[in-house]
Amino acid sequence: MLSIPVPLSRHRNLCGTWGGNAVQDFKNVAVIGLGSMGWGAALSLLKAGFTVHGCDVRADVRDRFADEGGHGFATPAEACTTAQIVFVYVVNALQVEDVLFGSNGALETAQAGTVFLLCTTMAPSDAVSIAGKLEAANMQVIDAPVSGGHLKALSGEITVMASGRAAAFDAAASALDAVSAKIFHLGDEVGPGSQIKMINQLLAGVHIAAAAEAMTLAASAGMDLQTVYDVLRVSAGSSWMFENRGEHIVSGDYTPRSTVNIFVKDLGIVTSEAQKSGAVTPLASLALSLFADASNQGLGLEDDAAVAKILAFRSGTTLPGMKG
Predict the structure, then answer these.
(1) Which of 75, 151, 243, 284 is 20 to 30 A from 212, comparing alpha carbons?
(2) Nearest by Cα to 315 from 250, 218, 225, 220
(3) Residue ranges of the domains in the chain?
(4) Among this protein's residues, is 182 annotated catalytic?
(5) DSSP reduced 3-state for 225
(6) Which tens digits make up the pLDDT trace of 172-196?
(7) Which of 27, 133, 152, 197 is an active site residue?
(8) Is residue 185 within 8 Å of residue 34, measured between CB atoms?
(9) Which CATH number is 8-189's, of 3.40.640.10, 1.25.40.10, 3.40.50.720, 3.40.50.2000?
(10) 225-237 pLDDT per residue, tens
(11) Cβ(184)–Cβ(162) under 8 Å?
């Protein structure tokens, strides 16, 4: 059962404690995966005065991170040798397994008691399984998926949907403060954080698909998309996703911030978990089919707003950024 989710930043008392335990000021942090969210978290940690070891397979990203004042490493084992706190920002559960337990994985060098924050969106059952392996290796774990987009990651204002033992939160307190505006403690066991993120991704994926449908209909009707966007983003039909992704569609800018393939994965988790529990998710299923179609048509690595191109093609219309 979930506890009442109040942001932890409002729980800290005047003595500097969380949950009754002393906050530990750990300053050596690793971030595995320097994609849009991991990059923002890593820079936010640097700005807060942490020593940050960033791990990414891309040499150019590691070089850019070094230019920002961080330390770039090609393998998790190298990045985690002295880290007291490790943020994991890779794409899916399989990648989490690999960067933690695979060859040159974090567990080869991590010291007992290191706090691992699992920020990857994955099925709750995967989060529980991975946490069990970490705890068996004498590590601490927080199920910590995040939301807010790359801009909030860069400004240290993401939302963290977290669950795990109080001692892990105490140890990671200052690092969590550095990357987030709100930290919800959803329980003492791993799993509830990933459950909440799953529901968030259901809404996010459906809202992106709805925004794409609305803008495609407007284009088919010959309406000026900038005007449509300007009116609707301040009207009752808007959503955060319409406000954010609608602008991408208007400008025809499909530079990936979050890709189509991310929502193939995330909505796949939603529909799979729903099937297991007997829940009916028709809107999530339809949105998944649109993202899957977009991916199959070669748009998987474009911004997730590119799902609008599939609807435009089916409608016989052209959106900005599409070839006529």
Answers:
(1) 151
(2) 220
(3) 8-189, 195-315
(4) no
(5) helix
(6) 999 999 999 999 999 999 999 999 9
(7) 197
(8) no
(9) 3.40.50.720
(10) 999 999 999 999 9
(11) yes
